Amino acid sequence: MVEQQVSNVSILIGRLRDDESQAQARDALLPLVYDELEAIARAYTHTTATSLDPRGLVHELYLRLVATPLEPRDRKHFFAIAALAMRQILVDRARRKRAAKRGGETERVPLTGLAACGQTADLLVIDEVLARLEALSPRQARIVEMRCLLGMSVAEIADAVEVSPRTVHAEWQLARAWLVRELAAS
Length: 186
What we know:
By secondary structure, this protein is mainly alpha-helical. It folds into two domains: 1-105; 106-186, Winged helix-like DNA-binding domain superfamily/Winged helix DNA-binding domain (Arc Repressor Mutant, subunit A), CATH 1.10.10.
């Protein structure tokens, strides 16, 4: 049953690249991946002070995906696109909230694993620092997102980015040191 669903998801993701059947594939894909998208959204909303609940974030994601041409290479790439889009939704909401009062309330995000447990930082600052890290090392930026924002384990990250757990651990150590320094400067 699970293998059949994974196969159906893979077929539908392949059909997303076809202009004629893209809308139908997208509509058929959402019910199949909804629970997985909601789990990603739950991780994001758990680590951010947002008024969106996980279902609301998945629904906003769907609206973005409908408005944007989507060409994922495979299942992992689709979920990576979805996770990045969710992060962008939350960052955009934080920017609007801050702009509403010209420096209004900022959303605080706990940075598990970076420094002292329970330390928080402004979501917009984190987004800016992650963008700088991505320019230096895209893989390290993905590892930080998965580790800090999604709460994934080293083994899960290794599987997702297709490297060994040892490589993930080494990259995490470098990225963590760089982030602590950059966030302290911010």
